[in-house]
Give the backbone structure.
Amino acid sequence: MTSNNTSIKTSMKTLNDASMKTSVKTLNDTSIEFDLHTHTIASGHGSHATITDMAKAAASKGLQLLGISDHGPATLGGGKPSYFRNLVHAPKIRLGVEIYYGAEANIMDYNGTLDLDDSILARLDYTIASMHPAVIKPGTLEENTKAFISAVKNPYVQIIGHCDDSRVPVDYAALFKAAAAHHTLFEINNASLRPDGYRIDTKKNNLMLLNLCKYYHYPVILSSDSHGSAHIGDFSDIEDLLKLAQMPKDLILNYSCEKLKRFLEKNKKA
């Protein structure tokens, strides 16, 4: 990977100008095996579903693995530290579906501080770090980028959550450089791209992320961000964007639990 932002930005322009020849299968052509960004009743809003309800929905849709990533305590009504601390004792298989227990931790300040202690995050299967305007007032492009990059440096953060909202502007070249250096994934968030979504300019911003990942042959994950069971494994609003980006199938981890597990194992930075 290039070592300076100028080279990345130049490459991004090349991607936007060039005609891409690589083809990609649609989601309907190949079986999706997992969804890591989902929320139960413990997130405090948008869901009355228990983990078992979520597992039932995942099983009915043929998923092999389901990630539970409830909101951290800074979200109104979100999970308390004791909830996340006790997930280590929860069943790892429910209704034939493997369950990964994680968290969507809130970035609290421009230094990348999270709302869950490292001692808790260390015992989870994965952590998504996200900025939510209800928790932290969006700053300048430089401040927001610093916040995400600082969170990426946390050894227990594996995924950057929905950094696709123009209300929270980000320098994608700089953030990509940091994420790749720290072996951290970007998610392409289906909820961001839904017609009723509230985030701004998400198609353009997610296309930028896909182009970066494609150019540097860096993997991504697709996420439903399902609050409740209804949208688990639903990536339908991402499909057109994947076609537009001509995203190679081998860079989309959702087609292989094995690839995901290898990535997360390699991600163990501490």
Summary: Confidence is low (pLDDT under 50) at residues 6-26. The two ends are 23 Å apart (CA to CA).
